[in-house]
Design a protein that fits this description.
It is a single chain. By secondary structure, this protein is mainly alpha-helical. It has a single domain, classed as Winged helix-like DNA-binding domain superfamily/Winged helix DNA-binding domain (Arc Repressor Mutant, subunit A). It is built from eight helices and three strands. InterPro entries: HTH_MarR-typ (IPR000835), MarR/SlyA-like (IPR039422), WH-like_DNA-bd_sf (IPR036388), WH_DNA-bd_sf (IPR036390). GO terms for molecular function: DNA-binding transcription factor activity. This is HTH marR-type domain-containing protein.
Amino acid sequence: MTDEMLEDPRITAMGLFVEAFTGVTARLNVQLAEHGLGNVDFEVLVRLSRSPGGELRMTDLAAQTGLSTSGVTRVVDRLERDGLATRRACPTDRRGSFTVVTAAGVAKMHEVLPDHLALIEEWFTGRLSPEALEALLCSLRTVRDAVRPGATSGAATTAAAA
């Protein structure tokens, strides 16, 4: 190993990305906990709430969140128990099911989002110019699409069915 390898800008880029992500996430997690939500619960509710009809197939939810099938099942079980989501059988595939955000889940999002967005603005997006933010979004989508090609699965299918 050479000193040049240690100074490689790819190492710097990855390190800064991880430090920024963990720092912002730590601040957001405190706020989510104040509303009785964990980061994964919130991520699932956001994905459902932003999907056409407020629903996603369980497999698409797993692809979008990066959770395993059993991991998504556990999260949805918890959200169901709390009345924030429910399951609905897939009318075209008996083996499949949809997770649907409930009215209580939407109300929870409306409760959480104002402070959550303020924190995102304070610690992340508000620190970037509009041009820098647009460039970052484009770059993040490029990387996301490469490492998680199924991350947008279900969005177009659900929209077309609606």
